[in-house]
């Protein structure tokens, strides 16, 4: 397939601005789309801060950082921004109806045959693709946070995804200097969410059974398995509400083994959602301290 030179990223939030930056650092021309100027500005501010960090750690020269930033073209006009690009990646919030609405807009505006990827972490690719009349061009490209540092792209085939779309997703992955793991069937949780949630829920059950403290379980997983963060720390980083939603949809698909433990449900009810709310499994109001209830 032809080399990918340009991309449109739809959504300038946490993942969207990281993805736009990764693409720009790889030399691609990037259209970055959001619904309002202020969301674009917030995304660009994050890119600027992150590029400055690359310069400080001497991974990029100032010239390379400036050139990368200049390759990102912000826009609130979706149809215009996607009209001539080689591939589109949707990174709007994890809501099926919103994603389907965006895909309907995309399918009308891109060149025929342009691959349209979604960064969903758990929604069905097949269901997202059902919103458009060319489901063969839709594929899942699940990037990880922070995109500029994380090397994996989990590529997920929908029921009707074409070989061409798979090749384009692999080519994009290669172009960004990342590596792919292919999920051959569009199933709830794909590979990574299903595996990490199973591990995390078992750790929560161990804590509830009084077998070990939150800190010791995190310590064991970091040192014993070289995980950069323990399961509780990672859950605090990603949000306990996000973790609970993941568990509930996995339970619907695979049964009681994914049933969320009470310690998780209660914390979410109390608004203890992790770092973003100041407390979750740990307390972040001051320095990080353990919180066990
Ligand atoms: N945050 C993570 O750690 C993470 C990791 C992997 C995958 N994901 C997935 O990536 C996607 C985006 O997550 P996020 O954390 O970046 O969300 P976010 O809320 O930080 O950003 C979403 C952005 O999309 C914009 N948006 C909303 N509707 C839009 C529209 N119609 N057109 C254009 N832009 C629109 C919002 O204004 C916002 O800036 C979700 O599907 C999520 O599940 C997130």
What does this structure look like?
With 293 residues, the protein is of the alpha/beta class. The protein has 2 domains: 6-183, NAD(P)-binding Rossmann-like Domain (Rossmann fold), CATH 3.40.50.720; 193-280, N-(1-d-carboxylethyl)-l-norvaline Dehydrogenase, domain 2, CATH 1.10.1040.10. The protein has helices at residues 14-25, 37-56, 62-70, 78-82, 96-109, 125-129, 163-175, 192-208, 214-225, 231-238, 240-254, 262-269; strands spanning 6-10, 29-33, 72-75, 87-90, 115-118, 138-143, 152-156, 179-183, 282-283, 289-290. The strands form 2 sheets. An 8-stranded mixed β-sheet has the order 3-2-1-4-5-6-7-8, sandwiched between helices. A two-stranded antiparallel sheet has the order 9-10. Helix 1 crosses helix 2, helix 2 (37-56) runs antiparallel to helix 3 and helix 8 crosses helix 11. 40% of the residues are buried. The model has no long low-confidence stretch (mean pLDDT 95). The structure holds nicotinamide-adenine-dinucleotide. Residues 10-16, 33-35, 39, 91-94, 98, 102, 119-121, 142, 144-145, 238 line the site of nicotinamide-adenine-dinucleotide (NAD).
